[in-house]
Amino acid sequence: MQINLNGQHKDIPNNSSLQRLVDHYTKDPTRVVAEVDGTIITRDAWSLTILKAGSVVELVSFMGGG
Amino acid sequence: MNTDNITIAGKKFSSRFLLGTGKFKNKGELKASILACGAEIVTVALRRIDLERHEENILEYIPQGVTLLTNTSGARTADEAVRIARLAKAGGQGSWIKIEVINDSKYLLPDNEETIKATKILSTEGFIVLPYVSPDLYVARRLVDAGAAAIMPLGSFIGSNMGLQTRAFIKVLIEEIQLPIIVDAGIGAPSQACEAMEMGAAAVLVNTAVAIADNPPLLAKAFAQAVTAGREAFLSGLPAKRPQGEASSPLTGFLFS
After folding, report:
1. pLDDT by residue (tens digit) across B222-240?
2. Strands B152-153, B6-8: parallel, antiparallel or unpaired by DSSP?
3. Considering its fold, how many domains does chain A have in total?
4. Residues of B that are catalytic
5. What 3-state DSSP class applies to A17?
6. Residue pairs spanning A and B at CB distance below 8 A
7. What is the C-alpha separation between B158 and B196, in angstroms, rounded?
8. Is A63 close to B91, i.e. CB distance below 8 A?
């Protein structure tokens, strides 16, 4: 199925959890904040959050900035 | 012992120099710069992670005990700033937010009106809000009413190194507003930071000048020293300028009279 991740279309397996998605894209999940369809998902709920086709996911983290 | 602390939202800091963490050539230089200047507050930004490559975790390069002030850079409206602030809080790095709402890509000037709106929303939600604004007395008064913890007026354009182009207007805020006034943006040399502190600013924030210097830790340290010098000059009660000569040696007992 297709989701929108950080503004890009991505194909992921059906019924993937948010946890699986985060683990796939970063080696250091502790730095990541996740939002699904405009709602912030706390880390303890990532494995319980099952993504749907068309889900809009944002994975953000802290970077250098002024 | 240094008792000249700056208090923001009830928290005391002995350093009046804030460092931004953007644009450093590498994270090692960033960490060395933070240690060299003794900054107790550093700013960070929030961005989408890079899906193509593994990125370093900047938080590992910020010493323990340093307060993180997440900016809302990238926000063009109050709502976007609020969204970024909530994401930052969910990131577990506290609730200190520098509101930065910018629509203009040439001058990068902040949108004061949207900034006031975001300040009101976020302070109600319990964030400690430090709004970055163009220095304007009425805007500053509204930010006080909106619950700001400090006000961050720009010295000049972000990253311009042009110094205190807005000095007269920042001076108004220092005189009329009870909150700490932290000069942010455009400070390109220690002399400029020193001038802001001599004028009575509570603190100064610098990023670009340090980050792009040949030796960032050395310049960071120089900035911190300039900020201390300026602060002590302010506290000393600097004498006013005089447009004529005033002898510093006695005017009696000359050998030749």
Report:
1. 999 999 999 999 999 998 8
2. unpaired
3. 1
4. 98
5. strand
6. 97
7. 16
8. no
Whether B90 sits inside 8 A of A62 (CB atoms) is no
Q: Determine contact, residues B161/B208, Cβ cutoff 8 Å.
A: yes
CB-nearest partner of A64 from B21, B86, B185: B21
Residue range(s) defining the domain that contains residue B89: 6-236
ipTM at complex level: 0.92
Q: Is residue B242 part of a domain?
A: no
**Chain B environment of A62 (Cβ under 8 Å):** 44-46, 57-59, 68, 70, 88, 91, 93
Q: Is residue A12 part of a domain?
A: yes
Whole-Å CA distances, B13 to B2, B3, B17, B46, B210: 10, 10, 10, 24, 21
In chain B, how many domains are there? 1
Asked whether residue A66 is assigned to any structural domain, the reply reads no
User: Which of B57, B88, B91 is nearest residue A28 as measured by Cβ atoms?
Assistant: B57
CATH (domain of B24): 3.20.20.70
In this structure, the number of other CB atoms found within 10 A of the CB of residue B5 comes to 12
A52 occurs within a structural domain: yes
The CATH number of whichever domain residue A17 belongs to comes to 3.10.20.30
pLDDT tens digits, one per residue of B127-170: 999 999 999 999 999 999 999 999 999 999 998 999 999 999 99
CB-based contact, B25 to chain A, within 8 Å: no
Is A66's CB within 8 Å of B24's CB?
no
Is residue A38 assigned to a domain?
yes
Task: Give me the residue from A25, A58, A65 closest to B20, CB to CB.
Answer: A65
Domain containing A57 equals 2-61
